[in-house]
Amino acid sequence: MTTVIIDTKSEEAKKMIELLKATKYAKIINKQMPNDETIKAINASDNGKVKSYNSVNEMMTELKEKSNVPN
Question: How many secondary structure helices (H) and strands (E) does the chain include?
Answer without folding.
Answer: 3, 0
